Amino acid sequence: MDSGDEEASEKYRIHLRPATLRDAVPATLHLLPCEVLADRPAPVGRFFTPAIRQRPGALEVSFRGRILRGEEVVVPPSLAGYVMVMDEKAEVLAGLGKKQESRGSEKGDGEEEPQPLERDFDRFIRATASFARFHLWGLETVPGPDAKVRGALTWPSLAAAIHTQVPED
Amino acid sequence: MDLSELERDNTGRCRLSSPVPAVCHKEPCVLGVDEAGRGPVLGPMVYAICYCPLSRLAKLKALKVADSKTLSESERERLFAKMKEDRDFVGWALDVLSPNLISTSMLGRVKYNLNSLSHDTAAGLVQYALDQGVKVTQVFVDTVGMPEKYQERLQQHFPGIEVTVKAKADALYPVVSAASICAKVARDQAVKNWQFVETLQDLDADYGSGYPNDPKTKAWLKKHVDPVFGFPQFVRFSWRTAQSILEKEAEGVTWEDSSTEDQEVPKRITSYFCPEGPRPRLPHRYFQERGLESATTL
User: Which family does it belong to (chain B) (predicted)?
Assistant: First the structure.
């Protein structure tokens, strides 16, 4: 990240549980053109998925009485999609003692210096699902090639290109 | 009535019709339009037309058709069966508008209100009869509210036909009574055999009359709210009763076209003459256009 973000990013030290990436099962995801002002599980399989219809030129469904038209977006081949969840602090603490003992053996690359975990500072994230494609929904119209998220998916390859070492002549 | 097409897919609209009696191609016909299920918060709205030759109107009258609201369910079924027996001179067609179609029309970016939807559906059915070669010369339509404007609109649409729009037409003209019976029979059957798109847990089949002021209907609505998805598609989300239950019992949702008016606080006029101070540095346009922000925390 930028140097200007250092202060804020010090709030947590994020660790990834790498094993969860290997075990992540593919999931079906839907990106809706609205915000549900809550963070909770939803019965997508009972309410939403069975209501999707294939109409000429687009998928169609409705949410809260409004019509959505959608299409499938494929994640660029060089990228992999994961649904990440941060472990609760309690889970970090519970695993704190054990983790520290086994830490040395878990890390194979040895690039990172082993540091002791701190209860308020260290957090673990893990993948709960993976995806290579997802459904993108627009309010009444298909989002199409100009959709923001399609543009966003082009950033990683551009970022890689502009950060590549240019050989000096 | 065979509603299997609707039962296969009840997310849109569905048109059903009888074969056109041969005599209706040759003789001038009178056609009635009526609807059932306009008010309820549950289930589809059904528009129906019924037509017969002017020369056979007395025979239709002899069936003792009446406003469907004054008849019991079994009387309506019996009369509809009689109309089927008289298929050599009576024809009908109907349009079932699913609650999902009603909700999505009324809650669209461009609002398509129930009156316009009704008028267009009625006009569509008259046109359908004409397209099928029915020699329509007179049209009678039941209306709610202002009949004058509606009549003017329909008359403009069908200049060659004599259009009469009248309140209580379903009680005054036998063809409209017959249409009201077709509509009501179809609506009742559609509601009774509704195929829920959703998989609902312990679904309660007793939803009362479906009218918003029926306590049973209200209780049913409250029981079947999902905090995220709201209601099953059987419910008309655009009804005030449904909306107010959602406001209380479901999570809030904001759409990209949700009004942002109250966020714009008018500034003091003098503020336009003062230096604004340092503006926050916005990310490059590339990132703004793609909705990308740098994450500093997760």
Answer: Belongs to the RNase HII family. Eukaryotic subfamily.
Identify all chain A residues contacting B296, using CB atoms and an 8 Å cutoff.
1, 5, 8-9, 11
Q: Are B104 and A66 in contact (CB under 8 A)?
A: yes
Token pair of B242 as six digits: 């449904």
Backbone φ, ψ for residue A76 (5° rounding): -50, 145
Bridge partner residues of B168 (DSSP): none
Residue appearing with tokens 């998928």: A59
Any idea what DSSP says for residue A27?
-
Q: What string of DSSP letters covers chain B?
A: ---HHHHH--SSEEEEEPPPPTHHHHS-EEEEEEEE-SS-SBS-EEEEEEEEEGGGHHHHHHTT---GGGS-HHHHHHHHHHHHHTTTT-EEEEEEE-HHHHHHHHTSSS---HHHHHHHHHHHHHHHHHHTT--EEEEEEEESS-HHHHHHHHHHH-TTSEEEEEETHHHH-HHHHHHHHHHHHHHHHHHHT---SS--TT-----TT--TT-HHHHHHHHHT-BTTTBS-TTB-TTSHHHHHHHHHHS--EEETTS--GGG-PPPPGGGGGS---PPPPPPPHHHHHTT----S--
Q: Give A107's contacts (C-beta < 8 A, 6+ positions apart).
A: A114
DSSP codes, A103-155: HHHH--S--SPP----TTTEEEEEEEEEESEEEEEEESS---TT-HHHHHTTH
B-chain CB neighbours of A50 within 8 Å are 197-199
User: What whole-number distance in Å separates Cα of residue A92 and Cα of residue A94?
Assistant: 6
Q: Quick check: B229 and A48 CB within 8 A?
A: yes
| Beta carbons of B9 and A5 less than 8 Å apart | no
Enter the ipTM. 0.85
* Partner A contacted by B246 (CB < 8 A): yes
Amino acid at A81: G
Q: Note down pLDDT in tens along chain B; length 298 residues.
A: 889 888 888 999 999 999 999 999 999 999 999 999 999 999 999 999 999 999 999 998 888 888 788 899 999 999 999 999 999 999 999 999 999 999 999 999 999 999 999 999 999 999 999 999 999 999 999 987 789 999 999 999 999 999 999 998 988 899 999 999 999 999 999 999 999 999 988 888 888 889 999 999 999 999 999 999 999 999 999 999 999 999 999 999 999 887 655 556 677 777 777 776 777 778 888 888 888 888 776 6
Q: Where is A72: in which H helix or E strand? A: strand A66-74
